[in-house]
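Appendix B, record 7
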Amino acid sequence: MAEEPNTQPSVSRKGFLKILGVGGAALAINRFAPVSKARAKPSVGSPALSTVPGVGPNSDVLIRMQDELLRALEKQPSERRWVMVIDLRKCIGCSACTIACVAENKLPPGVVYRPVMDQEIGTYPNVTRKFLPRPCMQCDIPPCVPVCPVNATYKNEEGVVVIDYDQCIGCRYCITACPYSARTFDFGELYTDGTAEVEGLIVGQKTADQYERAANFEYQEERERIGHNASPIGNVRKCHFCLHRLAEGMLPACTTTCVGRATFFGDANDPNSLVADLIASPNVMRLKEELGTEPRVYYLV
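Structure tokens (predicted):
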């Protein structure tokens, strides 16, 4: 009997391995494809990412403070009382608030509006660290105001201590008078001082130059620090609760960037506000209250 010819094509070892690989990949895709009963599938009640939750008892504090800020802006400026509350139990010393403040106000070297004080307590091995952010206290009775010979620093309608850069003569009497060391002087230093002028020799030189030439919007005025007659160089500078952001319905930069949600801001004249609740806490304090300056920055301890 004649032997039937073999009609199946012969497969080489290389071809066999290729087929095996394709089949394995198909099985893998099928294995991890989403199915109706997959554990990772969100439940029907899960909110979509595009929906913003309303302001409720379980809302993030930033959402609540933002809502309260918009409500406060509907009132007359004289009816508002901006205060800041800092929970020292939550502060982790990350300095995110300091960096956010520098970036927001385009601060030069040596000018810091919100440093974070770092204190080491105890001896090894029983050592701990405590952190204390220190913005301007925005005192209701500010000792820095009456010493200014040209009335360049004063309290505005909202009770925030401000500086008129066009009026300031740089005498620095206010720096000496401030018991919180919350004021600094702009000596005109630049981050690019002493760096090579040749492009590419210093990493980030171009970006640093752009930063130093960018305008800031302190006190709702656009001011360029380099090559501008309205530059704040030669003036005293300080924290101003980000008044330019408040005017646009935004919280201060330090508040929104706080990693530990340790910084709170709002209108203390609103009895239903978060800050009004916090400053009524029994564990609240203010720095150097014995001086009678009536600071608007409170600390929870």
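Remarks on this record: Confidence is low (pLDDT under 50) at residues 16-53. The CA atoms of residues 42 and 50 lie 15 Å apart.
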